[in-house]
Design a protein that fits this description.
Elements: H1 13-20, H2 29-51, H3 61-96, H4 103-147
């Protein structure tokens, strides 16, 4: 019997969507955002691949290769962040399920939730920042290249 993939990048698109639509707490919005950002980076790579080695774009080769490197690095990190987001949110969900029958349990639960909530906020913030940086860096480097299409 084969084991189910543990990383979202190893799932089929259908399997990821199935998990996303399930009642399970993960994957959630952070992982979905990271995957959407990775898809956007892949589309940048497609534009680059379609443009490289075309004589009319030869003078933009360095720009295109730089854009491809940025997109590739962003894509890989976004896929990692999809998994990190799910893991940190799973930790937060587990903290919410901790017992709270006694004052000591309640205090432990509250402090665990606080730490887990802080941890669970890191991946979505990095996803947002990485997508913002990706858009800015690509806009800066590809502005002139895309100008010729308008």
């Amino acid at each position: 019997m084969t084991e189910a993939p543990t990383r979202f990048r190893d799932l089929t698109l259908s399997a990821f969507i199935e998990r996303l639509g399930s009642p399970a707490p993960v994957p959630g919005g952070g992982s979905a955002s990271a995957i959407a950002g990775a898809l956007a980076a892949a589309l940048v790579r497609m534009v680059v691949a379609l443009s490289l080695d075309k004589p009319k774009y030869a003078r933009y080769e360095r720009t295109l290769r730089r854009a491809d490197a940025v997109a590739r690095a962003s894509l890989d990190r976004l896929l990692e962040l999809a998994d990190e987001d799910a893991a940190s949110y799973a930790g937060l969900a587990a903290a919410f399920r901790m017992p709270r029958a006694t004052p000591e349990e309640e205090a432990t639960r509250r402090s665990t939730i606080e730490v887990a909530a802080r941890q669970a906020s890191l991946s979505p913030l990095e996803i947002l920042d990485l997508i913002r940086q990706l858009a800015h860096r690509l806009q800066t480097s590809l502005n002139h290249f895309f100008f010729i299409f308008s």
